Amino acid sequence: MDAVSPQPAPELAPVRPVLAEAVELARAALVELGEGEVGAHLGVTFEDESAATHRFDARLPGYRGWQWAVVLAAVPDSDHVTVSELALLPGPDALIAPDWLPWDERIRAGDLTPGGLLPPRVDDVRLVPGYVATGDPVVDDLALEVGLGRKQVLSLEGRLEAAERWRTGEYGPDSEMAKAAPSTCEMCGFYLPLAGSLRVAFGVCGNELAADGHVVYAEYGCGAHSDTELPTGAGSAQFEAYDDGAVEVVALPAPVVVVEEDPASTD
Ligand code: SF4
Predict the structure, then answer these.
(1) Which of 39, 84, 45 shows the shortest CA–CA distance to 63?
(2) Distance (Å, rounded) from C-alpha 41 to C-alpha 255?
(3) Is 35 left (phi over 0), alpha (psi -120 to 50) or beta?
(4) Using an 8 Å Cβ cutoff, are 55 and 38 in contact?
(5) Name one Pfam family in it (predicted).
(6) Ligand 1 pocket check for 218: Cβ under 6 Å
């Protein structure tokens, strides 16, 4: 199968014959360039009255589907054709890089590594202005005391986004762990409710054997809940239980009767 699709026929205007027929001149320019084998001629397209572009299959390693483009020029009413430009261009089936994306659209959760800097986006809708220092030390000290010391705080939208991520995440009410839990986090002694409006539905787990340090939904839960009780009679988890109430019936061999001889009867 051909690696390159031929270009569609030019739609703009007919190429002047003197330009259209100069295929070998275009090919010779590529051969002289010396960048590798030049493949089949794929067509010629109109640029303007004085110029046309010839395309050739580019057989270069790593450039599947790319094409050589040779722009030829001839001034009006002249038969003299010159080579204006050579270029390697992607054809319709060429393997090319995906569209460029700004870094803030490329970055994903988990990309941040120690020492990395990740400023919020410009006009990040998740943030709104918080308290801005007035310069009056009395007012500013009081503001810090009541928790107004940050330049920006989470907007309503930012809080709703976070709440939705947490609710539908690993520590949400629909997880397998929550479905099998004996009770919910909001009833657990290890549950530390968040401050602010998110307090009604979220807290942090303080149990090192469970979701320690993670934000958990109030209706999440796990088997390490503080009210969890071991079922009675379960015994040690390490050894199988020994039932000393059971009776094992063992078949014994028939007793052997030894008859001792009377010494008097042997006389
Ligand atoms: S121990 Fe389990 S139930 Fe208790 S807060 Fe942590 S995750 Fe929730």
Answers:
(1) 39
(2) 109
(3) alpha
(4) no
(5) DUF3027
(6) no
Is any ligand 1 atom within 6 A of the Cβ of residue 178? no
For residue 143, which phi and psi values (nearest 5 degrees)? Answer: -60, -40
DSSP H helical ranges for the chain:
17-20, 23-33, 103-106, 137-145, 156-167, 176-179
**Nearest-angstrom CA–CA distance, 61 and 38:** 12
DSSP code of residue 78: -
Residue type, 246: A
Q: Which two tokens stand for residue 89?
A: 């261009």
Residue type (1 letter), 106:
R
Residues 205 and 214: beta-carbon distance below 8 Å? yes
Q: Which of 38, 107, 97 is nearest to 68 (CA)?
A: 38
Instruction: Give me the amino acid identity at 118.
Output: L
Task: Please give the Cα distance from 53 to 32 (Å, whole number).
Answer: 17
pLDDT tens-digit series, residues 88-140: 999 998 988 888 888 878 888 888 787 877 778 888 888 888 777 777 788 77
Who contacts 133 (Cβ-Cβ below 8 Å, separation ≥6)? 140, 143
Pocket lining: 225 vs ligand 1, CB cutoff 6 Å = yes
| pLDDT tens column, 167-216 | 999 999 999 999 999 999 999 999 999 988 899 999 999 999 999 999 99
Minimum-distance ligand 1 atom for the alpha carbon of 183: 3
